[in-house]
Amino acid sequence: MNWLRLISIASLLLLLVPIFVLLYYGLGPFRDAAGFSTAVLRSIELTLFSSALAVVADFILFTPLAYYLARGNDRITESLVDIPVSVPHPIIGVALLILDSPVTPTGQFLLGLHINFYNTILGLVTALVIMSAPIYVKSMEPYFESKDPAPEEFAMGMGASRLKTLYSVVLPNSRDGLTSASLISMSRALSEFGSISIIAFYVLQFPFYGVSPASVTIYEFFSGNMSGGLNAAVTASAAMILVAIPITLAGHLFRRRAGR
Amino acid sequence: MIEAKVHVQVGEFRLHAELQGGGMICLAGKNGTGKTTLLRAIAGFLPISEGFVRIGATDITQFPAEEREVVLVTPNTCIPHLGVDPHIVWGARLKGLRPQGEYVLRVKSELGIDYRGTVGNLSRGMRQRVALATALLSSPRAILVDEAFLGLNEREAFVSTYGQLAKRAGVDVIFSSQDEADGKLADYLYVLRNGLASLKQRDANS
Predict the structure, then answer these.
(1) ipTM at complex level
(2) Structure pTM?
(3) For A16-27, what is each residue's pLDDT tens digit?
(4) Is the torsion defined by CA of A183, A187, A190, A192 positive or negative?
C-alpha cells in the first residue's frame, strides 16, 4: 500500500470536491437558464478579455523583473513582489480608487491625463495586473533560474547588456516557460473578485457597457441583486469553471514541457 | 597580453591565481582545481576579492562583464534560435561591426563550418564551432574557452587553426584543458594544481 499516494489523492479530492459539487449541481439539478443567459456569457467574455489583456501587460511589464530576480540576488525586491497577493484583495480595489480619486493629488493628476480606473476596462485590467503579476513573476523566476546561463554570459561577453540579453537570447528560447506563466497568471486573473468588485463592479465603456466581470455577476445572482438566485449563481459558476479549467490545465501542461 | 592576479572565494573554495601571457594560453588542471572559477572571474561573472585583470593597457577589473569584451565560450554556449550564419555575425553586429563577407567565409571554411540550420538543432561539436567563430568575429579583447575544444573532431588541428585566426585578429585566447599535454598547442601553459596554489608557468614548448 502506497500511503503517501493515498494521502495525496485524498488531500487533492478535498481541494476538488467544491469544484465537482458546483459542476454537478450547476449542470444538473440546479441548472437554470439564467446561468447561461446573455448577461452571463457577456460577463465571461469580459473576464476573458480583461484577463488576456492583463497577461499581455504582465508579459511586457514584469518579464524583466522576473529575469532580474532570477539572475540577481535581491531578496528585498523578491519579498516585495508578494505583497499585492498577501493583503486582502479588496484593499487593492480601494487603493486604486484612492489613487485615481478626484480628491487626491495623484487622482487629480491621472484624471487630468484622462486616466480613469473607476468602472472602466483600464481599472479592471489594472486590478487584474496587480493581482496576477506576482503569480506571473513567481512562475517565470524559477523558469529563468533553471536555464543554463552559458548563452547569456556568451552574449554579455560580446557586449550585450542584461536587457538586450533578455530580449535577444533568453526570451526567444523561452516559449514554453512564457506560455505556461501566462496561462497560470491568466487563471489567477479569471478568478479575481475582491479588488475588481470595488474598482470595476461593472464597466461603463464600449463594447462592454453595463457588463460586470463573471465573478461579480455570480455574486450578484447569489446576493439576489440579479434575478435567478442561487440556482443561476451555481449554473454560472459551473459555466465559468468550464472556461477556466482548460486554461489552468494548459498552463500546467506547458510548465511540464518547459521543465524538460 | 593578458595579466591577471585573482583571489576568489566561492563557498569553501578559495582560488589564488596569477597568469600573464598573450596569444594562446593553455590553462591545465584536473577537475575541481579552479579552471572554470578563474575563467569566470576574468570574464567578470565572479567577483574577485583581491587582485586585478588587465588586457593590454586596459585594467578591466572594475568593468561589468558586458563592458569587458571578454567572451566566455563553454560546451553549452550558443544562441539556440539563430541560424548558423546570423549566429556567426551576431556579436559583430551587436557592436556595429560589419565583418567582410570574404573574411566570414574564410573563418567558416577554416573552422569547418560547412553546414546550415538552426544552431540549437545542431550536434554539440557543430554548435561549439559556431560559438567559437561567433566569438572570434565579434573582435573581443580576449576569448576564454572553457573546455569547449573538447569533443571536437580533429581537435589539435582545430585548436591550431583557431589560434592562428585569433592571432591574426589580435585576440588573446585562454583555453582550459584537463590534459597538460595540450600545452603543446599553446604559447603559454599554466598548470593549476589546486585553488590555493599560484599558477605555475611552464615553457609551452618543453
Answers:
(1) 0.93
(2) 0.89
(3) 999 999 999 999
(4) negative
